[in-house]
Write a structure and sequence with these properties.
Number of helices: 2
Number of strands: 3
Radius of gyration: 15 Å
Mean pLDDT: 84
Order of helices and strands: HEHEE
C-alpha cells in the first residue's frame, strides 16, 4: 500500500496538465502555435508542411491523443497538431498528413 501512493501521485500529476498558451513567453520565443497550419513559413523557414507536435521527438503524448506533454514545455500539454521551432522528427515517424497520424 505505501509504495503505491507515490506511484499514484506521479500518475495523477501527469493527467490533465494545463495546455500551453501561444501567449506564454517560452511559447512565443519558440514560435509555438497550437495549429501547425498557422505557422508563419516566412518567419520560420525550417517549417515544412506535415510537421506537427505528434511527430516530433519532444512530444510525449499518446498516439491519437489531441494533446500531450512536451519535453520543451515542462508541466504543460501541447496540441498534437501544434508546432514550434524545436521540432525534430521522432525516430520511426514520418512527416505527413495529420489525418494519417490518427487525429482527424
Amino acid at each position: 500500500g505505501i509504495a503505491a501512493v507515490p506511484a499514484a501521485s506521479l500518475l495523477a500529476g501527469t493527467a490533465g496538465a494545463e495546455m500551453l498558451s501561444e501567449s506564454d513567453a517560452t511559447a512565443k520565443s519558440l514560435a509555438y502555435v497550437a495549429d501547425a497550419k498557422k505557422v508563419d513559413a516566412k518567419a520560420n523557414p525550417n517549417y515544412k508542411p506535415g510537421q506537427h507536435c505528434a511527430n516530433c521527438m519532444q512530444y510525449q503524448g499518446k498516439t491519437g491523443a489531441a494533446a500531450g506533454p512536451c519535453n520543451i514545455f515542462a508541466g504543460k500539454d501541447v496540441a498534437a497538431g501544434g508546432w514550434c521551432k524545436v521540432w525534430v522528427l521522432k525516430p520511426g515517424a514520418k512527416v505527413g498528413c495529420f489525418r494519417a497520424a490518427g487525429f482527424l
